[in-house]
Amino acid sequence: MYRNYFYLLRSVKDISHELIGARITDVYSQEKDKLFFNIPNNEFPNRHLIIDTNPHSTSIFLKDVHFKAKKNFMQFFDNALNKKVHNVEIAENDRIVKFNLGETFILFSIKGNKTNIFYSENLNEVQSFKKSNNDDINKDLKQIFFSGSNHPSIFNRDNAISDLNELKKLFPMLSNEIKIEIDFRISENENSIWNIFQNIVREFLNEDIRVGFSIDLQKMMFFPSTFKTIITEDNYKDFSNFNDALQYYSASFYRLNAKSNFKNELEKYFDTEISNLSAKLNNLKIRIENGSNENLYYSYGNTLLSNMDSLKKGMKEIILKSNEGTDELKIKLDPKLNPNENINKYFEKAKDEKINFNKSVELFESAKQKYNTLLTEYDYFKNADTIDKIEYLYNKLITKKENIIKMDSGEKFKYWLYLIDDKYSVYIGRDSKSNDYLSVKFAKQNDYWFHARGLPGSHVVLRVENLKEVMPKEIIKKTASLAAYYSKAKTAGTAPVSYTFAKFVHKKKGMEPGKVLLQKEYTILVKPEIPQNCVLVNE
Questions:
Q1: How far is CA 343 from CA 158, 303, 305, in A?
Q2: Which terminus has fewer CB within 10 Å in the chain: N or C?
Q3: DSSP-assigned letter for residue 112
Q4: What distance in Å separates the CA atoms of residue 282 and residue 288, rounded to the nearest whole number?
Q5: What is the DSSP letter of 144?
Q6: Three-state secondary-structure class, residue 133
Q7: What is the pLDDT of residues 456-465, one digit of tens each?
Q8: Which letter does DSSP use for residue 308 in this model?
Q9: What is the crossing angle of helices 339-382 and 387-397, to 10°?
């Protein structure tokens, strides 16, 4: 309601004593729709009167400290410079404010999309802030009566109005909130409708201004603290000065808009995450229920090994009795491979099947835990009754979208990111080029670098955020396990992993992608696995 006529009257009342006698030293614009008047005093040489002509945020307010931009500004109303403000008036029954500068004046006219600021030395020479048909404002000025910031005479006169509809016709600027308040006070038999209206106007002009979030209306409210029909959250604030109230309201309003966007983003986040996790759980469940083909592939490999003499390159399949019994096995072969290669292929498939099946079980348990946590968070979101709870959940769940990281070649840097114990970030390269970038460009000199010793695998970097903290040995061990897992050693019971500080990792010109030199290194023996409390952040 801060744009309501009555609060415009209050703003004129509150700023008049600050402006009268002050001199205008500069008039310019450096933001769309806003005009800045430098009106200094002894205490605040950079004090500005700021008038906002945006139809959705029209306002007048004083800012004690504001600095003009060094460029990208435009000067206005040069003839107004060095003139003093004699007084400030407001049109009776219309949202037009007049700053009298002796024989000249500045006019702020609030007319929806035609809201504008004018400067005139006489009614025949009018300058405007925005493009305008100045004939319209000239016509208005000849018909409008201006009065000072004290209670305008139209509200003081005796009136026999006893019906709310009559009051609406006489004062079309009545907002819905004011009408509801009048209706309520009538029902309470507080007084006659005219006396109620006069009391409300006085409250607009004199009582504290309350700024708070209305749960019923789901928006920030700006209203007299005496109103009985507007209920806000308990963290409202009351102000005796309109200027202070408006600046607090503006900050809160934009903060609320941001939170509204938070709510929309959270809704999309939960829809996407719940849908994706449900599909993932169903697929993993089917995979686990179908069981592992590890024994079948070992059976194929052993049977082929026992009948190696029957195998020839170029065969697409062969039917043999299994080593375990009399069952016949129809085994597919790769015609491009020789007998040894086809046999080894099935032993490799058996090892991979074991790893993939165990990984499916691990992923199912991890996804199930994440799904249950997500449902709890979604329930919290649905029952959040304050904007602070929405903001808390947003900061917790919605990570800031980072720019896509590109390598020197312009290609995207591909990596897996794990979080250990909800604290330590581990980056794992997904191909040779990304390994190089991770090790030589991305890693900071005091980060830890890992690689499975003597075997092909991903380069792994453990990010060190706090240089004063000694990295726990358990975190180093868990990171080494990840490095072993993302290498050819992943099927081994244990595997050696080299690690060192990233500053000791170098690459010479001409070296193959993924190859580096270590100035010094340490070795640790670990089990290749995804350790407990180690969560994959990106897919």
A1: 107, 9, 6
A2: C
A3: G
A4: 10
A5: -
A6: coil
A7: 999 999 999 8
A8: G
A9: 170
Collapse the DSSP code of 523 into the 3-class scheme (helix H, G, I; strand E, B; otherwise coil) and give the result.
Answer: strand
Collect all residues with Cβ–Cβ distance below 8 Å to 104 and sequence separation of at least 6.
79, 80, 83, 119, 120, 121
- What order of strands is seen across the sheet that includes strand 96-101? 125-128, 116-122, 104-109, 96-101, 87-91, 146-147
- More confident position, 252 or 348: 348
Tokens standing for residue 232:
């806000």
Helix residue ranges per DSSP H, 290-306: 294-306
Burial of 372 (0-12, 13-18, 19+ CB in 10 A): exposed
Whole-angstrom distance, CA of residue 77 vs CA of residue 375: 60
In degrees, to the nearest 5, what angle opens at C-alpha 192 toward C-alphas 190 and 194? 120
CA distance linking residue 7 with residue 89, whole number of Å:
14
pLDDT digits (tens, 9 = 90+) for 20-73: 999 999 999 998 899 999 999 999 999 999 999 998 889 898 999 999 988 889
Alpha-carbon gap, residue 165 to 181, rounded angstroms: 14
Asked if pLDDT for residue 323 goes beyond 90, the answer is no
Question: How open is the CA angle 76-81-87, to the nearest 5 degrees?
Answer: 105
Number of separate helices (H) and strands (E) present in the chain: 12, 25
Percent of the chain with pLDDT over 70: 91
Q: Taking the mean position of all CA atoms in its chain, how far away is CA 526?
A: 41
Residue 469 dihedral angles phi and psi, to the nearest 5°: -90, 135
Task: Give yes or no for residue 354 having a pLDDT over 70.
Answer: yes
**Residue 225 and residue 204: Cα distance in Å, rounded?**
9
- Model confidence at 16, in pLDDT bands (50, 70, 90)? confident
Q: Which residue has the higher pLDDT, 66 or 123?
A: 66
DSSP element (H, E) containing 237: strand 237-239
**The 3-state secondary structure of 237-273, one letter per residue:** EEECCHHHHHHHHHHHHHHHHHHHHHHHHHHHHHHHH
Q: Where are the beta strands (DSSP E) in 148-279?
A: 209-214, 219-224, 237-239
| Distance (Å, whole) CA 65 – CA 130 | 26
- Exposed/middle/buried for residue 43 (C-beta within 10 Å: 0-12, 13-18, 19+): exposed
pLDDT attached to residue 500: 96
pLDDT band at 171 (very low <50, low <70, confident <90, very high): confident
CB 356 within 8 A of CB 363: no
